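Notes continue from the previous slide.

Worked example: a multi-chain complex. Inputs as given:
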Amino acid sequence: MFLAAIAVVVTRSPGWDEFKAYFFDWGYYSESFPEILDAFWVNVKLFGIAEAIILPAALLLAVLRSLPGPVFFPIRALAIAYADLFRGIPTILVIFMLGFGMPALGLDWIPTSQFFWAVVALTLVYTAYVSEVYRAGIESVHPSQDAAARSLGLTRGQSLRHVVLPQAVRRVIPPLLNDFIGLQKDTALVGALGVVEAFRQTQIDQAATFNGTYYLVAATLFVAITIPLARFTDWLVARDRRRQQAGRLA
Amino acid sequence: MRKLLISSLVLASAAALAVASAATGGGARVTAPAAIPGCDVASLNLMADGVLTIGADNPAFPPWFGGAQKTKPWKVSDPYSGKGYESAVAYAVAKQLGFSKASVKWTVVPFNNSFRPGKKPFDFYITQVSYSPERARAVDFSKSYYYVNQAVVGRKGKPIAKVKSIAGLKPYKLGAQVGTTSYTYITRYIKPSSKPLVYDTNDAAVQALKNGQLDGIVVDLPTAFYVTAVQVDDGVIVGKLPTKGTKERFGMVFQKGNSLRSCVDKAIDRLWANGTIKKLQNTYLARAGAPDLK
């Protein structure tokens, strides 16, 4: 009902015809689809490589941050400083600073590849986010679990590996996916370095014809990846719950 | 870093302009023109009565805009100065239509907003927008006020500096600003073996050239002179690219169907006929020394 009302208001608006011509032109859509799909592989490569580094790196960071005792204070402090810094700086700034800044140093051994710096920037930012997710998971496991494991003779490392982390990680799968989707979408920022990814390709096409249908193409591609991924996680979580409630061992 | 770059640009461009205006004795002077029939100020379709609102991108770069940075929020140059080719042409058009200098207002409009759907925040927009039939379906263009060639800028002493032909450019990593005909030229005619890189602004492409992330950038020829003179110390114009297909031309951008366009077209016709455009091009755009690429 509400949606129908919005639909009526939008289609009756004075600019509707212009809007329609600008954003929904089937000719432009089908014509540009293969080209933008081609550029979209750059996004897929970006978030694929970055996520593969982020997941283990963030876990390590979260574990370092939860180390107890005054001995580990410097490590904890460093981990906190890192997370604060990279969660605080807008992603686009990190991308700009690394992508244009590092090669400007003029050192021979520093790579100049834009793709390389894009991956580094996204990895730095999202490792900070994801480590916080892991930390929340680790802290959600009741301390008695760890105490019980230690009383059975497991070392602190063993207890972490076999008792705490398996429970912690399973609990945070949905927010992990959330950040993964965020990462996928943020790959569109990398165009700022000159890499022609899906969004940059749409801008090129749009400026060539002054038509905005290309945005719709890019949106379709991003959604086509994120929706199946979201359903997959739902299924994963549901399966997990079924197994736990049935009392079987996972 | 960008700020530093810009302030050094301002100094350098101010110096360059001082030289230019000393050489020519100031901008072109248009003697009070006879009114264009049917185009008196009161009858024109304007955003605000009696005021000509012109859109341009910020920063306003030479040689298209000149003068020292003065009126806020304009950076690098000042469109209100009447100096620089596009500023001068815009004021000449305004004068033909009967506007005084004081009744011309400039407004900042990023290139990408100049053609977005809906009501435009300007009467016309002037920032090196090339005409194409596809674009003309979304906005209206005035007649040409400049016919443009593209050019390749590289760095001295690098292999690309020795290239003599379009085919010779193929092995190099090239870049351009997003949405420009410069980029189209790379993909359509140069077809380099590695994918060209595309930047939000010319500045970003220039920075990548300085960083060695690119071998060359493609820009229009007047911009190429500016880039090599001011922005890149060891910059060199590899060559001027030949015109392919129809002649590329810059036009002012109007809201689709704006009746103001026909009056501006008449004014531009007069400026070509009475030699004003030629004179302004000699003042602001004519430089020698760019080899032709075959």
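Summary box: DSSP finds eleven helices and no strands in chain A. Residues 201 and 207 of chain A are 10 Å apart (CA to CA).
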